[in-house]
Amino acid sequence: MSKYWSNTIKDIEPYVPGEQPKDKTYIKLNTNENPYPPSPRVIKAIKENTNNNLRLYPDPGCDNLKEAIASYYNLDRDQVFVGNGSDEVLAFSFMAFFDRERPLLFPTITYSFYPVYCRLLNIEYRQVPLQDDFTLNVEEFYRENHGIIFPNPNAPTGIYLPLSKVEKIVAYNIDKVVIIDEAYIDFGGKSAVSLIDKYPNLLIVQTFSKSRSLAGLRIGFAMGNKKLIEGLNRVKNSINSYTLDTLAMIAAREAIKDDKYFEETRLKIIKTRDRVAKNLRKIGFKVLDSRANFIFISHQSYPACDLFNELKDKGILVRYFNQPGISNYLRVSVGTEREMDVFIKTIEEIISG
Ligand code: PMP
Predict the structure, then answer these.
(1) What does the buried/exposed string (b/e) look like for 10-48 if buried means 16 or more CB atoms within 10 Å of the residue's CB?
(2) Ligand 1 binding residues, C-beta < 6 A
(3) Protein residue with its CA nearest to atom 7 in ligand 1
């Protein structure tokens, strides 16, 4: 039998997403989902629309949703792009803007999808080191490059880079595309969206998966100069005109209009996060200063890997990254107050033997 076909399958190392366990019900703190349901307006709108329109293809331009996002951020509709989760928006961005010549820069400790896209698309990249306290040294991004991407707040550390420093990076690299992945920006950071009109090279990517509780519907978006958005549209329309389905668009539009619910839930998460961080520090944990809906923690005398396994045995799922520099840390998503009470109690029992 010819093995020719099997040799032609691309040898790529894909991204491994966090577990969605099926064996039992966990207190699930491993993939940074929002512990609260989406806005009641979202559920109502989906119910009202399940019998309508589904026979038809969705609007390929996603105009109504783009309009709602543009109005929320005070932009024009053609400064907004939407996609099937911000993972897709990021993938399209890599395809649209980055090449093989000089390297794309991103931090050593960061969202692990970036090197995956680079390897898939043959994009040259260089990872810039973080400082010992995991903060980002702006000057690392003054090295030769053909583009830059980093999350703000960073993942999985949760550390936020102040807007003035983000602006320095964007301004210094004015002739390159700089992407700020703001998946977690609503949990205490300040978005760089205010800089879009000043810097045509800046692309902001955000998601409805975290602060708007819609991870299951897959909606992400980008905001930037019209030319960048046009570049994204070209890539998208060369791959799939209908990346967002009708119900996802309706849901996202309702979610972004319900500011009251958004504020309530996001502030609740911030409050829980800060309380949990304080309690963990009291019992000997190092907790990085997080502006995201997760915390990054380590314990001097208890290996993170063991802690991960013991928590899992006791029904609590967190995230462990077996990666140089962070292999003694756990990333813990912020759940409800009650879930986090159970988490603190359990982890305290484990470390005190
Ligand atoms: N960027 C970062 C930094 C993330 O952590 C995630 C979530 N894993 C994403 C983007 C993608 O989120 P989504 O595709 O759900 O919008």
Answers:
(1) eeeeeeeeeeeeeeeebbbbbbbbbbeebbebbeebbee
(2) 85-87, 111, 151, 155, 181, 183, 207, 209, 215, 220
(3) 183
Does residue 247 sit in the same domain as residue 290? no
Average pLDDT, rounded, for the chain? 96
The total number of residues shown for the chain amounts to 353
Going by alpha carbons, the residue nearest to atom 4 of ligand 1 is: 183
Helix (H, G, I), strand (E, B) or coil at 142: helix
State which of 19, 86, 106, 116 you would mutate to test the pocket of ligand 1, scoring each by most atoms of that ligand within 8 A of its C-beta: 86
pLDDT 10s digits, 190-235: 999 999 999 999 999 999 999 999 999 999 999 999 999 999 999 9
Average pLDDT for consecutive 10-residue bins of the chain (353 residues)? 76 89 93 98 93 87 98 98 98 93 94 96 96 97 96 98 98 97 98 98 98 98 98 97 96 98 98 98 98 97 96 97 95 98 98 90
Report the Cα–Cα distance between both ends of the chain, in Å, rounded: 58
Host domain of residue 304? 17-37+260-351
158 located within any domain? yes
- For the entire predicted model, the pTM comes to 0.97
CATH number of the domain that residue 219 is part of: 3.40.640.10
